[in-house]
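Key result, reporting period 2: structure in, sequence out.
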């Protein structure tokens, strides 16, 4: 999983993090997807870019622009282009050159051939460069002299590449937090108990390798998996049938149509029966493009479905912090959130066994009936006969709400004014007319629409959205024409000034030559 440590550090602040736009003090950036995006997007090294728009509270939309889908920091990918910008051929050629130079030096197929050769080497000659993150063949040892080398790689090492590869640590791009063995084993046991035979692992390399490890040890194990991940280093360990280089933010297969076809065949096996999608996206990414990509995978799965089964859904486990619940439900209304706390090996906060606000905020969102998902009783989970689902030990059933209402593992309290249960650390604020943390700023507590500044709805559901967009587009075109005219006037004045200066210079030169001849 690639996740941002900037998200979810303070659990009580989590609810404010789940917005359709990335906002800060009344302004932010929203992503434009689907038919709204219009023409095909230009590409950066991470595939097709996304179309963004700057939004400000109570103001019209700003100019639209294309930026990288995977990187939030322009230091990692500095692609930027205005939506209506005309790009010259020279710039396009330079951009294509940059995109090519950023691609891996070896193809997936070449890595597969290297792995075959590596596997034939004796144990003493199996070496891995920890600095270059690369399996080394004997003829390459000289190039890596002085590097930190891991020697005597066993078959067990090669079967667990997520433990061999160093997790990527850039928080704003792809900081990788990997499932702890506890969570990974639980997910696999649950998948088997539910009767699934195939797992499409989107950004879950540790689950993928555990499935393959189980298959290699147990002949009766019939669960198969396909890994889709943006980390190309895994191509050193998996064939093209087991791993596809994939960007989940723009549904882009780096291997082209051949890789897309591998994914399609995997989903279509046994007429689409017995397959589940398990994904663990970066927490710092926008929910909209993720949902858009997952719906593309669902559409691929539905291609094989018969007409009488058109209402069936592809089973999904979406692993994400609980405070994104409202955003996920906006795109997948049939989903529900499980109380199971997912923990990670290399994350200081997302650990199992902690209590209070220090508990892991990561949960499982799924469209599978909650009554079918059994959580481990030995960890304190229990079955609520009223809600017909397993809940955490601190999640007490509220008779007024008629539900087990806790989201973060603590026991929530019912507020009669808000008519719902809230976190134990919240108090009711008469100014905001809702419960919030003590000492919060009332002016910023009330959410308003970015389009009309009205309360009770967001920009995405504003009734004035279409009118404002048309007005904004007309205004953008007007500004572009005005800017173009200003530029032309500047160029014209510069040309006239230069021509006048040149004529004066020639005239003075002729006069000087005439005077010289007269002398």
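The corresponding designed sequence is given below.
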């Amino acid at each position: 999983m690639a996740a941002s440590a900037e998200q979810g550090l303070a659990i009580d602040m989590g609810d404010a993090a789940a917005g359709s736009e990335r906002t800060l003090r009344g302004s932010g950036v929203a992503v434009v997807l689907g038919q709204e995006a219009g023409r095909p997007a230009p590409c950066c090294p991470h595939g097709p870019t996304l179309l963004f728009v700057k939004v400000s509270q109570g103001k019209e939309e700003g100019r639209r622009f294309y930026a990288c889908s995977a990187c939030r920091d322009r230091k990692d990918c500095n692609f930027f282009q205005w939506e209506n910008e005309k790009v010259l051929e020279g710039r396009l050629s330079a951009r294509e050159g940059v995109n090519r130079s950023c691609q891996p030096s070896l193809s997936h197929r070449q890595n597969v051939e290297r792995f075959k050769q590596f596997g034939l080497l004796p144990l003493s000659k199996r070496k891995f460069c920890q600095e270059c993150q690369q399996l080394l063949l004997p003829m390459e040892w000289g190039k890596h002299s002085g590097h930190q080398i891991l020697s005597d790689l066993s078959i067990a090492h090669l079967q667990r590449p997520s433990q061999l590869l160093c997790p990527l640590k850039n928080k704003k791009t792809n900081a990788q937090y990997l499932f702890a063995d506890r969570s990974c084993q639980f997910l696999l046991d649950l998948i088997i108990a539910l009767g699934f035979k195939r797992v499409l692992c989107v950004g879950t390399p540790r689950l993928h390798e555990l499935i393959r490890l189980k298959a290699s040890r147990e002949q009766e194990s019939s669960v198969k998996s396909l890994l889709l991940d943006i980390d190309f280093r895994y191509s050193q360990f998996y064939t093209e049938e087991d791993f596809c280089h994939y960007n989940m933010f723009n549904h882009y297969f780096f291997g082209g149509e051949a890789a897309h076809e591998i994914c399609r065949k995997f989903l279509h096996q046994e007429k689409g029966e017995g397959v589940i999608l398990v994904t663990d996206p970066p927490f710092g990414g926008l929910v909209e493009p993720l949902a858009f990509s997952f719906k593309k995978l669902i559409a691929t799965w539905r291609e094989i479905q018969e007409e009488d089964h058109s209402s069936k859904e592809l089973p999904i486990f979406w692993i994400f912090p609980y405070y994104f619940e409202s955003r996920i439900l906006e795109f997948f209304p049939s989903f529900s959130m499980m109380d199971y706390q997912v923990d990670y090996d290399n994350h200081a906060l997302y650990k199992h066994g902690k209590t209070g606000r220090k508990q892991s905020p990561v949960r499982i969102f799924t469209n599978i009936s909650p009554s079918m998902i059994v959580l481990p009783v030995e960890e304190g989970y229990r079955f609520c006969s009223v809600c017909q689902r397993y809940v955490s030990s601190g999640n007490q059933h509220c008779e007024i709400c008629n539900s087990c209402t806790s989201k973060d593992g603590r026991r929530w309290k019912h507020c009669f004014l808000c008519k719902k249960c809230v976190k134990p650390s919240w108090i009711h604020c008469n100014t905001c007319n809702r419960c919030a943390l003590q000492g919060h700023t009332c002016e910023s507590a009330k959410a308003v629409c970015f389009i009309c500044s009205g309360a009770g709805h967001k920009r995405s559901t504003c009734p004035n959205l279409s009118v404002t967009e048309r007005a904004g587009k007309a205004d953008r075109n007007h500004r572009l024409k005005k800017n173009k005219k200003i530029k032309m006037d500047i160029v014209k004045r510069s040309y006239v000034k230069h021509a006048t200066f040149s004529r004066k210079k020639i005239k003075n030169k002729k006069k000087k030559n005439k005077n010289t001849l007269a002398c």
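The chain has eleven helices and 26 strands. Residues 381 and 392 are 5 Å apart (CA to CA). This case is discussed further under Risks and Mitigation.
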